[in-house]
């Protein structure tokens, strides 16, 4: 009888522990959002003073965590397309295995937003808390986690912070044409774009059809988190995973969906689901840990670029 009573208690304690972990990571991630989605960053338009300030915030954290610069002689890759003085940001956390460390897991998010808006919403600052301070913040917490000696992966981790995504994936396309590391080393790309509005709803995976054998890995990573995963069939060039998929590198995007505050002044930090943010962060951390430590990584599905949706 005692054993039967202990089992529900253990389950309860595990549930509480998991919820506390979600909240702890959510709070840490939100602290970055609260900074870079503040009015002082003026909406982080690509190439702007606010974008420059956000870039400095990001690189300070990379340097504090002793991440190796992987841009053009620094953390930065400078480019001028659509807007001048844009900055992609790259760093590498070296893997521990003598052979596997030659391979790179790329994880990234765009850090730019739309500044003061345009057309009907132009004028007020558009802070872009969800789009995409949430993704940027999630990657920064991954940096803090995997840069610790006890958490280092066997494969190397390439962290990417893209500029000028809002003008049509300009930063990631530019990098694929002018890479700062050997692209052939990259075995997977995880893109994190707008993950701050889970709110008990589903987490979308866009681009997942480019990956062989993805679902069992994510199912394992999702244990105890119980996030409802929506494997979106359509594959469109809507964020920075696409240039990688187009180059036949498997990958996908985590995304909690569009909302009425999208590209509007109301996309502010107070709209963020902090617990949900932590859940997505833990799922991503577990998934990347698998990629970074397993003997093999999922392969690219070439047919994903041409196959048509099955008729129901």
Describe, in plain words, how this protein is organized in 3D.
By secondary structure, the chain is of the alpha/beta class. The protein has one domain: Zn peptidases (Aminopeptidase, 3-Layer(aba) Sandwich). About 35% of the residues lie in helices and about 20% in strands. It has 7 helices and 9 strands, in the order ααββββαβαββαβαβα. The protein has helices at about 1-35, 50-65, 130-145, 170-175, 215-220, 240-245, 275-295; strands spanning about 70, 75-80, 85-95, 105-110, 155-160, 185-190, 200-205, 230, 250-255. Strands 1, 2, 3, 4, 5, 6, 7, 8 and 9 form a 9-stranded mixed beta sheet that branches. Strand 2 and strand 3 form a beta hairpin. Helix 1 (about 1-35) crosses helix 3 (about 130-145), helix 1 crosses helix 7 (about 275-295) and helix 3 (about 130-145) packs across helix 7. The longest helix is centred in the N-terminal third of the chain and has 35 residues, at about 1-35. Mean pLDDT is about 95; it is low at about 1-5 and about 10-15.
Q: What would the keywords be for this entry?
A:
alpha/beta; disordered N terminus; globular; Aminopeptidase; 312 residues; single chain
Which segments are poorly predicted (pLDDT under 50) over 5 or more consecutive residues?
1-5, 10-16
Alpha-carbon distance between the two ends: 51 Å
Radius of gyration: 19 Å
Q: What is the level 1 CATH name?
A: Alpha Beta
Helical coverage, percent range: 25-40%
Compute the number of strand runs.
Answer: 9
Shape: globular
Sheet-strand content, in percent, reads 15-25%
CATH architecture annotation: 3-Layer(aba) Sandwich
Q: How is the main sheet built?
A: 9 strands, mixed
The CATH topology assignment is Aminopeptidase
* Separate helix tally: 7
| Structural category | alpha/beta
Number of domains: 1
Order of helices and strands: HHEEEEHEHEEHEHEH
Q: Give the overall average pLDDT.
A: 94
* CATH superfamily annotation: Zn peptidases
């Amino acid at each position: 009888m005692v054993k039967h009573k202990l089992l529900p208690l253990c389950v309860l304690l595990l549930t509480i522990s998991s919820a506390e972990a979600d909240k702890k990571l959510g709070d840490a991630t939100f602290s970055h959002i609260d900074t870079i989605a503040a009015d002082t960053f003026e909406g982080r338009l690509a190439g702007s003073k606010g974008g420059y300030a956000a870039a400095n915030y990001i690189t300070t954290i990379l340097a504090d965590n002793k991440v190796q610069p992987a841009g053009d002689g620094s953390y930065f890759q400078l480019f001028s397309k659509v807007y001048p003085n844009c900055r992609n940001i790259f760093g590498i956390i070296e893997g521990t295995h003598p052979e596997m460390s030659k391979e790179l897991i790329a994880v990234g998010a765009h850090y730019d937003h739309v500044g003061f808006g345009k057309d009907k919403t132009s004028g007020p600052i558009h802070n872009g808390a969800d789009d995409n301070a949430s993704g940027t913040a999630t990657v920064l917490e991954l940096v803090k986690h995997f840069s610790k000696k006890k958490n280092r992966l066997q494969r190397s981790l390439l962290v990417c912070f893209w500029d000028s995504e809002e003008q049509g994936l300009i930063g990631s396309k530019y990098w694929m044409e002018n890479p700062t590391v050997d692209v052939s080393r990259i075995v997977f790309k995880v893109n994190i774009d707008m993950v701050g509005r889970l709110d008990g709803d589903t987490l979308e995976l866009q681009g997942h059809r480019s990956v062989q054998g993805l679902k069992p890995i994510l199912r394992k990573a999702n244990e105890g988190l119980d996030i409802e995963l929506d494997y979106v069939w359509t594959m469109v060039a809507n964020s920075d995973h696409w240039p990688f998929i187009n180059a036949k590198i498997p990958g996908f995007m985590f995304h909690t969906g569009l909302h009425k505050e999208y590209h509007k002044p109301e996309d502010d930090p107070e709209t963020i689901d902090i617990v949900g943010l932590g859940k997505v962060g833990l799922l991503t951390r577990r998934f990347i840990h698998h990629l970074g430590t397993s003997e093999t990584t999922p392969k690219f599905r070439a047919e994903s670029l041409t196959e048509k949706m099955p008729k129901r």
